[in-house]
Each structure stands twice: as structure tokens, then as C-alpha cells.
Amino acid sequence: MMKCEFEKLFGSEVSQEDYELYEIIYRDYPGIKDKQHIVDLVKIGGKSVIQDMLPKARMMKILEDTVREKKEKREEIVKKLDSDITFLYNLMKMLLVSPVELVENKMREKVWEEAEKLELIH
Questions:
Q1: Can you list the residues of the chain whose pLDDT is less than 70?
Q2: Closest to 89 measured CA to CA, from 112, 114, 116
Q3: Continuous H helices in the chain
Q4: Cα separation of 67 and 40, whole Å?
């Protein structure tokens, strides 16, 4: 929400400092439904009510950021696991080839290279 939007709904000008406080509550406080809701809260309770809401709004912001970061990390881990599973599946397929075929197709080298990448052998 922009300052001019807030002031239009509120019916008068507010300081930049007050607007920034209202914006934090509007953006981060749980249960704020829309722009008019924050305006009504300011009109009914004044700045002191909004200031009382600030710690919870800040905590919610921290929690939401943490959840977002954890979800991003989970996605990275899932991608890595998918890659590892694909690699292991391909390695299993290579190991199912008979020894004669391994020699003939020079696949033995590939198996060893892949096993070394996984640190299965030293």
C-alpha cells in the first residue's frame, strides 16, 4: 500500500514515520484483511494500538522468512536427491551388464568412474 492510498482512506495526512509503522502492520500482522482494515484500526485505536501490534508483526515476518528459506533449502535437497537417485539407478543398470559386455563395450571404466564419484571405492 502506498502512503497516498492510506491517507486517502484515512482522510488526512500522516507522517512518514507513522505510515511506515502502519505499513509494517498491514504487510506482516496476521489477520489484517485489507487496506481498509488497517485504516479502521488506526481510527479506532490510534497509533498506540498499532505500536502494540508491532512485536507480533515483526515476529511473523521473521517466521515467514524462515519458512520460505526452509522451503527453498528443501527444494535444493530434493533436486540433489533426485539427481543422486538417477545416478544410482543408472549405475545399477550398468552393473547388470554381464562382465563380457562390460569388457566389450568399455563400460567397466564408466562403472569405476561413477563409483569413485560416489566414493564407493578409494
A1: 97-108, 120-122
A2: 114
A3: 3-10, 16-28, 35-95, 99-105, 107-117
A4: 30
